[in-house]
C-alpha cells in the first residue's frame, strides 16, 4: 500500500488533527508521514448548485 486518503468534514483543523491522532495506523506508527490540509469542494458540490 502506498497511501490512504481520508476526507473529513470538521469545524476546524484542530478537530481533524484530533481525529487523525486516533487512527489505528497512526497510533501503530505505520505511516512514514501524515499530511493534513484543507480542501475546498468545488466541482459537483451540491451546496453550491443553484
Structure commentary:
This protein has 50 residues and is mostly helical. The protein has two helices and no strands. It has helices spanning 13-21, 24-27. The mean pLDDT is 88.
Strand content range = under 5%
SSE series: HH
- What gross morphology would you assign? elongated
Number of helices: 2
User: Major β-sheet, in short?
Assistant: none
Task: Give the helix level as a range of percent.
Answer: 25-40%
Using only C-alpha atoms, the radius of gyration works out to: 14 Å
Content-based structural category = mainly alpha
Any low-confidence stretches, pLDDT <50, length ≥5?
A: none
- Number of E-state strands: 0
The average pLDDT value, as a whole number, equals 88
In angstroms, what separates the terminal alpha carbons? Answer: 40 Å
Amino acid at each position: 500500500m502506498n497511501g490512504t486518503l481520508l476526507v473529513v468534514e470538521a469545524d476546524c483543523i484542530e478537530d481533524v488533527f484530533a481525529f487523525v491522532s486516533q487512527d489505528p495506523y497512526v497510533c501503530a506508527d505505520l505511516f512514514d508521514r501524515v499530511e493534513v490540509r484543507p480542501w475546498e469542494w468545488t466541482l459537483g458540490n451540491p451546496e453550491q448548485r443553484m
